[in-house]
Structures are given as structure tokens and as C-alpha cells.
Amino acid sequence: MERLVTIKSSRYGMDIHLTPEVPFDILLENLRSKFVSASHFFKGAQMAVSFSGRTLSRTEEEKILDIITDTTEVDIVCIIEHDEKNELLYKSAVEQSLSNVQKREGQFYRGTLKRRQVLESDESIVILGDVEPGARVAARGNIIIVGALYGSVHAGASGDRDAYIVALSMQPKELRIGDVEAKRQIIYQESLNIKGPKIAVVDGRRIYLDPLTD
To answer: 187 with 206: CB under 8 angstroms?
Structure first.
């Protein structure tokens, strides 16, 4: 008989595979039983959670998270979606977040920022979505965008030139790190020459764009 629920863990988090043909309420009961019996294994863990096997509504996701919270001491830092194109960026975001959580810094924002939306943070921030034209993000720490950057971003907003900005695609209207502003056309050209996730950093008086991984 096929397992109704399978839980797998890795250094980046936990994947919960749910059989698609079974009613959701039955899956919840099975999931609760599994977490109760394995609660000692997950004690004190900080994880990102992903779901596979079936498409879940936001309400269904929240019910699963409630069960995890009720039965274990897992600290869930975010929910990630299966997307091979974004895999490296997800891993980077999770690693950066787990490091910040240990220092009680950093936060997640889930969703796309649309025109005229403004997101500000006194810490580092991970955005699970796009930053569309006309949207603006400012953070005193780093900014990681698990998606495309088209709007305006300012990392190290308190003057920290050691901050960085990461995104899958970078064609920003404005990009600043500390007190250094990037030349829009240079960032656009460098972005076209780099495949995959990109990171923007300050070197001297200029912002450079590099691949996130070699």
C-alpha cells in the first residue's frame, strides 16, 4: 500500500509528500500521527518546509503548519515551492535565514511586491516572489529575492557597504548598497551575461554583479 504521507529532511529543510488521491482530512490525521511519533527527532530544528505530491491551498498549508507547531518544536522559517530554476536561490535564502534566525535577525516576506508597494526592514529580508516595476524594498541588512527584481532596492540602508543583494533576475529601476548607487545600464548589461542567480556587492565605489555560484 502506498504511503499516504512521506516526510523527508535535508540540510535545507523538510519536504512533505502527500498522496494526491486521498481526502485531505485523512492525510492530516496521518501527518499528525507521524509527527507525534517523530517529535523527538525534530526537536529544536529550524527548517524550511516544502510540499509535493499534490497542490495545496493556502488554508491547507496553514493546517499542516499548525499540526507541525502543535506536535513538534520545529521552528519553520519559510515555505518554499518546488522549482528547479530557483533551487540555488532557495538554498541560499534558507541558509542566510537560518544564520540570521540564530542571531535573532532577518525576516521573510512571501508574495510578489507590486507597483507602489513598499517593504522596509530593520534587518535582512528574504522575499519569496518578484519585486515588480514601481515597487520598493529597503533593508538595513541584506536583501534576497527568490524571483525577479524590476523595482527599486536598497540594502545596507544604514550605510553598510558590506550588505548584498541577490536575485534570480536583475533589471532594477534603482539598486543601492549603503551609500553607493549602481548605474542602471551597467547592471542591466552585466545581468544579461550571467545565467542563474546573481549577487550584487560593493567593491570600492562601484556595485558589481557576479554569479551567486561558480
So the answer is: no
Number of domains in the chain: 2
pTM: 0.66
Tens-digit pLDDT profile for residues 140-194: 999 988 888 999 999 999 999 999 998 888 899 999 999 999 988 888 888 888 8
SS3 category, 93: helix
Q: What cell numbers appear for 98 in the block?
A: 537560518
Q: Do residues 34 and 18 make contact, with C-beta atoms less than 8 angstroms apart?
A: no
Range of the domain at 61: 5-80
CATH classification at residue 164: 2.160.20.70
Q: Do 206 and 145 fall into the same domain?
A: yes
Q: Does 72 share its domain with 89?
A: no
Amino acid at 200: A
In angstroms, rounded to a whole number, what is the distance separating the alpha carbons of residues 65 and 51?
A: 11
Q: What is the largest CA-CA distance in the chain?
A: 63
Co-location of 120 and 72 in the same domain: no
d(CA 52, CA 171): 31
Is residue 167 classed exposed, middle or buried when 0-12, 13-18 and 19+ CB atoms within 10 A define those classes? Answer: buried
80 within 8 A of 144, measured Cβ to Cβ: no
